[in-house]
């Protein structure tokens, strides 16, 4: 005779344990999904409730323009700027401003044909800080370079006009040519150091003065940067503000790394440095 009762009791005891484990697993998955949803909501840049929109956001319309864009995907392409290239251009331009007359420096700060300015454009007190102050401008250029290339992330829509597109291609060609030359220089570095040992020859890569006799390829690269920066800085509004490529890039700089957007206290510092360096470039 076989007695099945103990086995049935064991199975009956296991089933509640399995149900409990299944419920706990389901609850854990629900919590993970809710957390992921909340994280995507925090990372997503989109229009907020009308009651939450400050006059600053209503004026800039960043939330509308950057709708459905991921915060990290917007900030990653501009997270590690190398201001050296633009910094060299800005340093040369600042030196030109310092040597320019008052009339030219007055015109450089004029924003309206009928405006009368009595404070000419001045350079930074600490001239050596110009490279550090070019970080925001370099981020703008990086935004254009990396979003014009093929990519998989969602980016806000913008477009170049024909002149900007032509200048942009020339800049990329100059960058590529400079990179190729750098690779050749690195390959021959040991031979060059041996041949130049004890000499006073200057390395063209370290020069920032266009009148110091540096290699022409560096001059061409600087001119390429100058030409592109001038094109996107001098574009005028004909219909909508966001038809201007510069306005689109500046909207990305308005995204706060943590949450929301930069406020009227923090963003003008970024804008003012770009405006001032831009005026240096216009004089150059």
What's this entry about, in short?
By secondary structure, the protein is an all-alpha fold. Helix content is 61%, strand content 1%.
Question: Can you tell me about this structure?
Answer:
With 284 residues, this protein is an all-alpha fold. The chain has one domain (56-192, 204-283). Helix content is 61%, strand content 1%. It has 13 helices and two strands, in the order H-E-H-H-E-H-H-H-H-H-H-H-H-H-H. It has helices at residues 5-43, 55-60, 62-65, 71-75, 84-99, 102-108, 130-133, 135-148, 162-187, 189-195, 216-233, 245-253, 267-283; strands at 44-45, 69-70. It has a two-stranded antiparallel ribbon with strand order 1-2. Helix 9 (162-187) packs antiparallel against helix 11 (216-233). Residues 37-53 have a biased composition (Basic and acidic residues). Residues 176-193 have a biased composition (Acidic residues).
């Amino acid at each position: 005779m076989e007695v099945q009762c103990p086995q049935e009791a064991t199975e009956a005891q296991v089933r509640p344990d399995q149900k409990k484990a299944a419920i706990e697993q389901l609850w854990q998955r629900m919590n993970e999904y809710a957390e992921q949803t909340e994280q995507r909501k925090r990372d997503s840049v989109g229009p907020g409730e009308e009651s939450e929109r400050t006059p600053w956001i209503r004026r800039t319309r960043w939330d509308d323009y950057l709708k459905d864009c991921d915060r990290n995907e917007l900030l990653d392409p501009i997270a590690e700027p190398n201001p050296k290239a633009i910094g060299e251009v800005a340093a040369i331009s600042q030196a030109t401003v310092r040597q320019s007359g008052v009339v030219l420096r007055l015109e450089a700060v004029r924003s309206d044909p009928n405006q009368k300015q009595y404070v000419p454009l001045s350079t930074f007190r600490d001239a050596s800080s110009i490279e550090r102050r070019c970080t925001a401008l370099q981020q703008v250029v990086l935004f254009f370079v990396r979003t014009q290339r093929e990519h998989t992330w969602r980016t806000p829509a913008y477009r170049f006009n024909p002149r900007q597109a032509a200048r942009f291609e020339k800049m990329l060609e100059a960058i590529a040519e400079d990179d190729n030359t750098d690779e050749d220089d690195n390959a021959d570095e040991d031979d060059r150091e041996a041949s130049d040992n004890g000499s006073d020859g200057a390395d063209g890569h370290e020069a920032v003065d266009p009148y110091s006799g540096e290699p022409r390829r560096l001059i061409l690269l600087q001119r390429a940067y100058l030409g592109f920066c001038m094109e996107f800085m001098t574009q005028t509004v004909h219909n909508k503000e966001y038809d201007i490529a510069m306005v689109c890039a500046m909207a990305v700089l308005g995204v706060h790394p943590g949450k929301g957007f930069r406020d009227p206290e923090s963003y003008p510092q970024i804008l003012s440095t770009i405006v001032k360096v831009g005026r240096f470039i216009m004089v150059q």
